[in-house]
Amino acid sequence: MSSRTELTLLPSIFAGLLATIPWLGLALFTVAAALETSYLLLLLVLPTSALGWASFRRFGLLNKPNSVVGIFHNQAGLTCELANGCHVPATVSNASFLSSELLLLHFKPRSPRSGPILAIITGTKGGLRSNVNDSAAFRRLRMLLRAGTPEPEHNPPSH
Predict the structure, then answer these.
(1) How far is Cα 104 from Cα 145, in angstroms, rounded to an integer?
(2) pLDDT bucket at 1, cuts 50 / 70 / 90
(3) What are 78-112's pLDDT values in tens digits?
(4) How many Å is the maximal CA-CA distance in the chain?
(5) Measured between alpha carbons, how far is 86 from 44 in angstroms, rounded to an integer?
């Protein structure tokens, strides 16, 4: 049985805001620490904000070269398509988070030349728009990840 899942990601303000939460927390902590100790710590707010903006562009607007714009699964395994046009075969790390409306995926590329790849995939929640074009493909990918993706060379025993 061979099923193919193709999931194309769309730009999403919600996914971008989720990506900036850690940077926003760090900026708020820096401001609080500056008010208690030295105002020189306020100089760290600007680089922290720049890193938050970079995360928003990478995960929300999908316009950084290493942004994941597509995830494909077939008998060869999972492949991530990046914004720069590269297709990277990868496996999903145990550090990933899966829920019914949100996937925070940490991919480990099968190529030793590539670093870890991250993707934020949102479903439709209330008035917030999903960042995928096909809700059925989102559901299939979520179920595939919950069941566990077999290694590409692994052939299940036939009965």
Answers:
(1) 12
(2) very low
(3) 999 999 999 999 999 999 999 989 999 999 999 88
(4) 70
(5) 34
